[in-house]
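Handout, tutorial session.
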Amino acid sequence: MKVVALVSGGKDSCYAMIKCMQYSHQVVALANLLPADDSVDELDSYMYQTVGHQIVVTYAECMGLPLFRRRIQGSTRHQKLSYRMTMGDEVEDMFVLLNEVKRQIPSVTAVCSGAIASDYQRLRVESVCSRLGLVSLAYLWKQDQSLLLQEMITNGIVAITVKVAAMGLDPRKHLGKDIGFLKSYLHRLKELYGINVCGEGGEYETLTLDCPLFLKARIVLDEFDVIMESSEAIAPVGILHPLAFHLENKEESNSISGIDKTSEICPENVGFVYEVQGDFLQSSEATCQSAAEVTKLDAVAEHRLRISRTKSYSTFSICCWLQDSCHTSAGLQEDLEVVLKKIELELVGCGFNWENVLYVHLYIADMNKFTIANETYVRYITQEKCPFGVPSRSTIELPLLQVGLGSANIEVLVANDQSKRVLHVQSISCWAPSCIGPYSQATWHKEILHMAGQLGLDPPTMTLSNGGPSAELEQALENSEAVAKCFSCSISTSAILFVVYCSAYVPSPERYKIQDKLETFLKQMRLFESERENISKALDPIFLYLLVPDLPKRALVELKPVLYAPEEMDMAIGTMQDLSSVRMPSYWGFQHADWHDSCFQKCVVHGKICAVILCFTSELVEKICFDSLGGGKDNGNYPLSVQGRQMESVLRFCIYLLDKLYMQTNFSWEDTKNLRFYFPTSIGLPVEVLSLMLNNAFNELAEMDQRVIIGEEPIFNLVPVLGAGSSATSMDNILTCELFASKS
């Protein structure tokens, strides 16, 4: 991509340009913001470094690139972490600046910045980029600062301190000193006082005088003053004010790959400085659709729509799909529009909106139409509608049409409060894959961390890892761990559940490698974590493997972890009650048997979380049908084949087993957050029939047990797949059930 680099003069923004070039991007212009008054060294700004701005003007000549500069007219007006366009805010100066760069150099598609740890700065750069249709590149984001500082020095960045403001740094001693000279001293201060060695906590700021990008000349600082802003004994604050400097020409050197030599700017203006003036621009963002303006559904679509909803008050799932038994789907875009409208109406009917949604499962019938699906999705779920953060998302292709469904199916997890914390990094970095669009890497709510579906994408290049499904899974695991660390947890010790989506493009002999890689990776990571942090408590996660037709980007594997991430780690692993003290009911003639344990995996956090995976293979189905006494009512609603009657028995047994697990773990059906039944298309039963079977079974349970209260809407979601199982090598279950319940 062709890149405009935001430069403050500091070491970070210069090294960010070097990283861009290492990843084959081309820097075509520089952009800088400076104080309105030349005599002012520093502004009271959380956003911009301006110390040394008198020298930054020479970067155009040093690099042979056009430099666009704008004098800052705004101030800090929008002080919340997540930024929304605010007239008169200093961020709008950046918008005006980059908008002018884009106007003069239309081929620019990305912006690079030196953000390392500041969410405040990163989110504002991403906001401006989103509004201008540009990609944010932040290759230093979340990188180890000690390693970064050494890399900068090794890569030839000559930068001096121009501001110090930390315990142990004396303006009279340490201003004007090279970072290479100060490196060991900075590490000593880190050990003594916990400072950030790259200055990310405001401990110091730098000015780059030379680096490999300065092809034409280096900067020589001849004279400067030390201006004391604070003379406190513990942490005095001082800045360097340049008085005299000159450029020292370099011998003609070979052009560095990544410095643009075919600029769209006229050749005589290469190295020219552009002063970008003008008032703040009005936003071109589309007006959001308010809750009162939600479009009504047409009667035909309404007739085909189906809804399910769990009964929990605090956090619940809503699923919406189109029943299309006659295969009359209008197409993906139309079907998705209808489903999104219906979900929106349901949310509004509950007094909520998209901002209350924690997670979205987006199921589509054809991954080749992913772009259409995404374009439709973003018209409904926007950052403007979700001021507390957009929901996380996974997108999967399913065989929807084959079982009588429409082309799109959506399940949303909804919270009745605004206590969620969202991690949404849109910048491309070396940290984890970016989410360029209205979905986030992870959403935390009431101690549960819901991660977006992770592909095996190499973060800096956003391309799938080479080496097949196991290589993709390993990268997806590394990406998931990077996200987990942002919430002070680890997938190796805090995971409740791993759902692994396997593409049908993975050959059968290769599938065993997926499971082997997952188990080995988690085992090694858990060992490493226990040795490093002496972790004694760890959850024993459960696993579900699903075979699906296709995944985004034609990936072979997608990983979806769910983690337990309390503010304070007080993990209490759940246990089953002693069956001898619990009188278990005998629904539909089913009696407790030891082999029932082979049907399920469970992960329980005592008094908080209960996650269960039920797997029914053909062998278990035979046992279930043999043990069943046919205790259910005969239903004339649908004719059943022998296979259908077997499925009816399995579904009843499934509900019986879930009810038993709930009783043993002191949970109830009202604690259910989501309940999914995965079935293979090979069983030959349409969704309509399976749904009737399940509804009847739940109604029968409610008649037999007054603890169970059934509402008008079903509480389950039926999900068609090509295969499912607790193992990647045997995804041949007749039925698979995934349940997640929590007390909060």
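The second record follows below. Compare its token runs with those of the first.
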Amino acid sequence: MTYNLSSIRELRLELQYVLTPCPLVLSPQIPQVSYASTAPELSDNTRYDFFSRVVPPDTYQAQAMVDIVKAMRWNYVSTVASEGNYGESGVDAFIQKSREDGGVCISQSVKIPREPKLGEFDKVIRRLSENPNARVVILFANEDDIRRILQAAKKANQTGHFIWVGSDSWGSKISPILNQEEMAEGAVTILPKRQSIRGFDRYFISRTLDNNRRNIWFAEFWENNFQCKLSRHALKKGSDHERIGKDSSYEQEGKVQFVVDAVYAMAHALHNMHKELCPGKVGLCSKMETINGTMLLKFIHNVNFTGIAGTPVIFNVNGDAPGRYEIYQYQMKHNTTEYKIIGHWADQLHLDEMRWPGGTWQVPQSICSQPCHPGERKKTVKGVPCCWHCERCDGYQYQADTYSCKMCRFDLRPNENHTACEAIPIVKLEWSSPWAVIPVLIAVLGIMATMFVVATFIRYNDTPIVKASGRELSYVLLTGIFLCYATTFLMISAPDVGICSLRRIFLGLGMSISYAALLTKTNRIYRIFEQGKMSVSAPRFISPASQLVITFSLISVQLLGVCIWFGVDPSQAIIDYEDQRTSNPDMSRGVLKCDISDLSLICLLGFSMLLMVTCTVYAIKTRGVPETFNEAKPIGFTMYTTCIVWLAFIPIFFGTSQSTEKMYIQTTTLTISVSLSASVSLGMLYMPKVYVVLFHPEQNVPKRKRSLKAVVTAATMSNKFPTKGGLRPNGEAKSELCETAVGGMSKCHNCKNMYCKSWGNNLIY
């Protein structure tokens, strides 16, 4: 720190009137009271145990500057120090305090040599400009260095870029900023709290060369103050023309208050010591002829009085005075500049509104990294805690705290800005969805058609065609077809325990009933014709009652499997959060569904598939039987078509297992496939019969019955003469076969195709 030496010397001499000279003999341990020394290391009472001061150490100043930086929300600053004890210790104290408090990082720490080379200050500015985000510069430098730094910044065209925070060496002085006020605009400086002593002003401006000859340095001060050179004659006779403050500028030195307080602190300590050692005695007693430095230090540390400026003068255990500072800002307003007090510090910082370069009230930024947006975590740069990169909490992560992201729970997803988690919406197949409308429409039409066929069969229950179709198995088959259509409504209904249980039961049951009845029919046809090739006796279990027993036995296998499934794994509705867990959380949905996996569904339909395949095999085996005698070929066509439907179903169903529309596609595909299977059976097996019953009643009349032997013989002979029928017009080959089958009829034309078909049907069914 630098001072005006001439004025300090004058102050020191002018205040000597406070002390009364006395012949004291001091021990080597001499207590000292300083009015200007602020170096932090002087607080070390293991090295400087007899040193005390009425000014606060720079550690308090550094703490005040750290508080200012944090109050302005600056976290990335640079430091500049003049080489030497004051500058380096001040910066070290600032760095230490910033580390202890946290939240402030140092971008550059520059030291100015005692004897700077040419271009040294330009180099300093270049270093400070390396990190443009670090706009705030902490200065612990002497006046000359401060002035030259401002000049270099102006030369580098950095006006308004840097925000200077100066120590008490800058304070409220004019000399560092003279002719470069624009560069200093907005600078924040600090000074120990002080007050101008008016009594000293009155005394000092009355001093002249005539009345102040005792001060040997006063003549030197006079020459500097009036910028003149005193002759020997003037030194002897003095001068009555110039007056301090009238013919020259005058401003009270800022340390006057502390000089007075230091003198009074020593005076109070000696006074208190005299009262204790020499009670009731005027002047020194024998106990004070030799002063004990340790004892005097004790009395100095114990003083407590109100100083000349009205502030208490006290010392802590280290001999330091409490920190009390005033905060200044160099402001420019309407082309006028001034240092304005904008706050104070005494253990805590108090700031008023501040004005920044350009006349703005908005605090300029000096931060390493911009604050992260909501939903972003900070990834700190190694070794620089104030610098970071912002990383987005992506996917299903949310911002748990400033530095980390965490995954949301399986049933939650991050909100829009990834700061918290929210419930994933639950979806199910709605009745209004296009994925549901089409299957429902098909099912409704199918149910109506099925009911129409059932009503027709009931109305014409005793007619030959209805009888010939096997009424018992037909009603069973129509029941299965109805259940296949009805399953659509169970598959689209909102899942719960009841709906899920019904799905398990009826999804496979309708198909099992249908294919069990068809399998029984094809098996009966196959056994009749195989038996007929070897014997004229009828096969076993071809009666209607036997057919029903076989059919219901097959159906019971399906029901038994479902019952076992219920016992092992009771039905329940679940919310599947994996089905529609997309990479974009906004599109994620929880699917309300029954706990039936794809594999379980195939197992559920597996028995029906087995019945279907077996029925198809029998249909193939009976494909050679003439259509005149049985329903084998319509059943065959039904099974071929059904197999094609289900072969198309399997790749669609499993090929969409990874699709986000899986629930809709698979449900729609399954229901349509089941409905199509039922429609094929209904259309190929029963619609022709209904057509004949309703629109050709003349064909729905009783026909003469023939023996089983005649029918089988006719079928065998039909297979032996496949080409003759093609050679003769109007089906003459079939007429001959009919004649042979009748066994005695002389006229071939009396045996018509319809009669043969009717005979065959009556015998077989």
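Points raised in discussion: Confidence is low (pLDDT under 50) at residues 1-27, 718-765.
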